[in-house]
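>> received
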Amino acid sequence: MDSSSFFWLLRSFYQLRAPLNRESEEYLAGFDMVSPLDDWEFLVGEWKGETKDQFGETETIKGTAVYSLDPSDSFIMEKREAWSGSSLVNRSISLMFFDTAEQKFKRKTFFSYGFVNNEVEYLRNEKEIRFDITMEPLSKSFQGTRWRSFIKKISEDKVAVGLEVAKEGEDFKNYGETVMTKTSK
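>> returned
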């Protein structure tokens, strides 16, 4: 592949985030190159929300999330906490990124429970990303259970986040959904 074809391919798929040399900067000067991740940068900031009788809990769950462009603008990092009264339900840290090779969003979420969700986009539009989840390590209590997660943009300062669950051979059902409101940038 010659350099002209290579840069055309890069322009077609994603925004270059690495430093460019002078020749490539001049070549690409006229191109408008964006990453699908850019559409979700509105998440950067602090968010809060609450829900009741969801996510396997009977009490009201209050959650906070802080999104940032860490460790670089190629990722959106989320730090989340969920509380039931004065009891911590869980903490998590996730990194969402756009895999240019597969042309899909991916997310890795690390939970205080001691497991990791490996999430791969299976559906996307301008307002929503839905992920299939592979959990590791897979506990015996979750064997035969399939999980999906989602994030839906309601507005620039409101999103819905949640989970769906299904036993093998069954349709997915809502496991929980929280509407989060942006509280600061």
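>> The beta strands are 45-52, 60-68, 76-84, 87-99, 104-111, 116-125, 128-136, 145-155, 158-167, 173-184.
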